[in-house]
Amino acid sequence: MNVPGDAQSLSLIRLLMTHLAETAGFAEEDIGKIEIAVDEACTNVIEHAYAAISPKPSIRLEVESNAEQLRVDIVDQGQSFDYNSYIPPKFPDHWNEGHKRGVGLYLIRKCMDDSSYTRLPDRSNRLRLIKKLSKPGDSN
C-alpha cells in the first residue's frame, strides 16, 4: 500500500495498523505498541528522510502476518541513515536536559520484537518491523 509522504497520512496509517493487528489476533497492548512503532517510523521518514524533498514521495507499507508474527516493511525514497549506529538516550537525563524529541528510534526498538534497516539496490530505504504474536500463557 502506498500512502502520501506527509503528516496527514499518519492517522490513516495508525488506523490501518490497528485494524491489521486486531485481525491478526494481537492483544490490545501489543496493538498499541505496533501502532506507536509504525507511526514513529513513518514520522521519521516524513521529518528526516523527506526533509529536503519537495514534493514528498509516497511511503510504501508492506504488511504480512501469519500465526506467529506481524511484519511491517516501511519503504521510502528519502535520505538514508545509519540505523545501527543509533545510541538510545539516557533517561531521565534526556528529559532533564530539556530535550523534547529524539526518542522515535528508541520507541520503535522498545515496542517491536525485531527491527532492521536496509538500503535497497534501487536506493530506497526499508525499515522492517516485526512483532511476535503472543500465545496464551506467554510471558511477554
Features:
140 residues, 4 helices, Heat Shock Protein 90
Task: Describe the model.
- The chain is of the alpha+beta class and 140 residues long.
- It has one domain (2-132): Heat Shock Protein 90 (2-Layer Sandwich).
- It contains four helices and five strands, in the order βααββααββ.
- β4 and β5 form a beta hairpin.
- The longest helix is centred in the N-terminal third of the chain and has 22 residues, at 28-49.
- It starts with a strand and ends in an 8-residue tail after the last strand.
SSE blueprint and pairings:
Elements: E1 2-3, H1 10-24, H2 28-49, E2 59-65, E3 69-76, H3 93-96, H4 104-111, E4 114-119, E5 125-132
Antiparallel strand pairs: 1-2, 2-3, 3-5, 4-5
CATH class: Alpha Beta
The CATH architecture designation is: 2-Layer Sandwich
The geometry reads as globular
Number of strands: 5
| Integer average pLDDT | 89
CATH topology: Heat Shock Protein 90
Query: Structural class, judged by helices and strands?
Result: alpha+beta
Strand order of the largest sheet: 1-2-3-5-4
Count of individual domains? 1
Unreliably modeled segments = none
CATH superfamily: Histidine kinase-like ATPase, C-terminal domain
